[in-house]
Amino acid sequence: MRCVIARYPFDLTRSDVLASMEGVTPEIVTGESVTIGRRRYPVKQVGQIITRQDRRDFTGGEVVRAMTRLGFTCHDRPEAEPVRVLTPLQTASALLGAASLEV
């Protein structure tokens, strides 16, 4: 499939992208991302690897459009991780435990 990223045309196939990303450790996802294989990569990391261009030269939207057209699943933002909230009983025991250490 022919796509344009940062005003340069690229002929990309799904298998080319899979081969390029094989063995690449995903960076921490903070924004848009794409699932390739079993891993979730930031779109800018994928764009940099498949185009060999600097990340500042293209937008995430260009990579998302190309990856979507190739059949990869793209995500807007990372899912929020659950926040651990202590129950009142856990809070009391933590406070009592800390108080007994001070004695």
UniProtKB/TrEMBL annotation:
InterPro entries: SCO5918-like. The lineage of its organism: Bacteria, Bacillati, Actinomycetota, Actinomycetes, Kitasatosporales. This is SCO5918 family protein. It comes from Streptomyces venetus.
